[in-house]
Structures are given as C-alpha cells and as structure tokens.
Design brief:
- The chain is an alpha/beta fold.
- It folds into 2 domains: about 130 residues, 3-Layer(aba) Sandwich (Rossmann fold), CATH 3.40.50.1980; about 120 residues, Nitrogenase molybdenum iron protein domain (Rossmann fold, 3-Layer(aba) Sandwich), CATH 3.40.50.1980.
- The strands form 4 sheets. Strands 6-5-4-7-8 form a 5-stranded parallel sheet, sandwiched between helices. It has a 4-stranded parallel sheet with strand order 11-9-13-14. A 3-stranded antiparallel sheet has the order 1-2-3, with no helix packed on it.
- Helix 5 packs antiparallel against helix 6.
- The N and C termini lie far apart (about 70 Å).
C-alpha cells in the first residue's frame, strides 16, 4: 500500500492511497489541517525554516538561529557530505518529502532548483513560501546568494560577516604568479569531469592551476575516458574522496591501476567532496588545499 499527496483545485492537500489498483481518497492528517496550510503570521524574520537540499542546509545552518530552524535534510548530519554537520545536531531531519515538511507548518522552505522539485511545487500550491536557489558558478555568485538568503532570513549582518571571513581567508592564500600554471583535471565517479563555467573551474583557477578539462572544451560537466586522462598528461589529477569509500561500480574508475602507474609524473590529489559540493566557505578550504598542491608541483619541477 503506497501513499502520496495530491492537491485539490481549492488548494487543499489530500493524502491518497493506491490499494489493489483502486484510488482511494482520504483526508490529510488532523495535524495537517490544524496548520491550515498557511505560514506563521510572525512578522519579520521566519521562525520555522525548513531546508530540503544539502546545500541549502548549509546556508540555513550558517545564517539562521538554531531555534528558528524546524528541519534540515538528513544529509546535513553526515560529516562526509556536510561542512556543518556539527550545527545540524538535534535539529529534526527530513528527506525532502512534502508529507514531512507540511506538518511542520514552515513559514519558509529553502530549496535548490534541481532537487525536490515535486515537493517545492506542492508546497507553493498550498501556500507555503518557498525560496528556490540556483547553483553558484563563481565566488561573486556565492556572495550574492549569501546576501539573498541573509535578507530572506532577516540575517543580513550575519551574511556580511561570513562573506568578509571568506574574503579574508581568500586574500591570505598566496598564489604563485607564474605564467605557466600546473595543469589539473578533475576525475569523479563514472568518469565525470568538470569544465568551464563551473564553480569547480573557478576553484582550480583561484588555486593557481589551469583546468585541463576546460581547455579540452568540456562545458560545465562531461565524461572522459581513462585514455583521455593518460594521453593529456595532467600535472595534477584531482579525485573525489569517494575513492576511499565502499566499493561501487561508479567509483571503480577512481581505483584503476593505471592511475597508480601515472603517479610518477602526475600528482594525485584527493579533495573531500564536501569542500566543493556546495557553494560557501568550504570552497576556500578547497582553494587552499589545491594551492598547496600547485606549489608542491612547482617545487618538484627540475628548473625550480
């Protein structure tokens, strides 16, 4: 027996069940009706904020007071995926489902434009405010997004402090001004790499390296073969930390013996996925890590 949510023409949510091939309508739970499907009437900053995306979790947890956060996703509590797992402790979690979110009576739901789209659409139809956020492609867009969310949460000053801290840390990273930069290539599970027009491209460039995938003409995301990796002889091959995780078909390429064979001429750098999976202060950690790698590669060159 499977339950799912539908919305009537009047905007009322009903829980329905498909049982034995017959569609049976049922009223939503008493708690759902008690909320009247409307946001809290408290003026000013929202006091029952729900996030339904890993990256919006980070924004909400960094910007909002804990007492004003009604729920974040279960991924927020996972240290391998989240930069703010410590901030998510003791906060109720959700899996991005409307039936989890609606009974919380949120006065603001923060969502990403590529995940939980059915949930976001339903929440909007029943009158719950939803802030949809795009994926930033550079540091300027990260700054703009923190200001946007800071304004929505009534936490403009906190947003500006976070931006100032990021800029201060970025300024402290000393990038070698050499005209010739180490060439780097990202290799993710299933052979995916990241090219121009992406936040990862900006991180690599800010770290003092050239994104080889971008020079090969890859736009944002694309797949490459191990042959391409070997033939193009990158100075640095950037792998995801998932390489060290449980065995999986998707990550077999990251453990291929050929990567060991080219390690004498290609530096292998493992970057935790959480450092650049989401836009924010963690990206500065990725820039610092890769800048150290770039400097090590330069020092290892015969002419230096």
């Amino acid at each position: 027996m499977r339950f799912y949510w539908t919305v009537t023409s009047a905007g009322r949510a009903n829980r329905r069940c498909r049982c034995g091939g017959h569609l049976i309508g049922a009223a939503a739970t008493a708690l759902l009706f008690a909320t009247q499907l409307s946001p809290a009437a408290t003026p000013g900053k929202p006091t029952r904020i729900v996030s339904v995306n890993l990256c919006t979790d980070e924004l909400v947890l960094r910007l909002a007071d804990r007492k004003n956060i009604a729920s974040v996703t279960w991924l927020a509590t996972t240290s391998s995926a989240s930069n703010v797992a410590d901030l998510a402790t003791q906060i109720p979690v959700n899996h991005g489902l409307a039936e989890e979110v609606i009974p919380l009576n949120p006065d603001l739901v923060v969502a990403g434009i590529y995940t939980a789209r059915a949930t976001a659409a339903l929440l909007k139809r029943v009158g719950i405010p939803v802030l949809d956020l795009d994926v930033p492609r550079n540091l300027n867009e990260i700054r703009a997004q923190y200001r946007e969310v800071g304004q929505a949460l009534g936490e403009e000053e906190r947003a500006e402090r976070i931006i100032a801290e990021m800029d201060s840390r970025l300024a402290a990273i000393r990038v070698n001004p050499a005209r010739v930069r180490p060439r780097a290539m990202v290799l993710n599970a299933n052979g995916y790499t990241i090219g121009k027009g992406s936040l990862t491209d900006e991180i690599i460039t800010r770290a003092g390296m050239e994104n080889l995938s971008a020079t090969l003409g890859i736009d944002t995301y694309g797949q490459i073969s191990l042959e391409t990796v070997v033939v193009n002889a990158a100075d640095v091959l950037i792998l995801s930390a998932y390489r060290e995780g449980p065995p999986a078909m998707a990550t077999e390429i990251l453990r291929h013996p050929v990567l060991t064979k080219i390690s004498d001429r290609t530096r292998i750098a493992v970057v935790p996925a959480r450092m650049w999976a989401c836009a924010g202060p963690g990206n500065i950690d990725a820039i610092a890590l890769l800048n150290n790698v770039a400097n090590e590669v330069r020092r290892a060159e015969p002419h230096e």
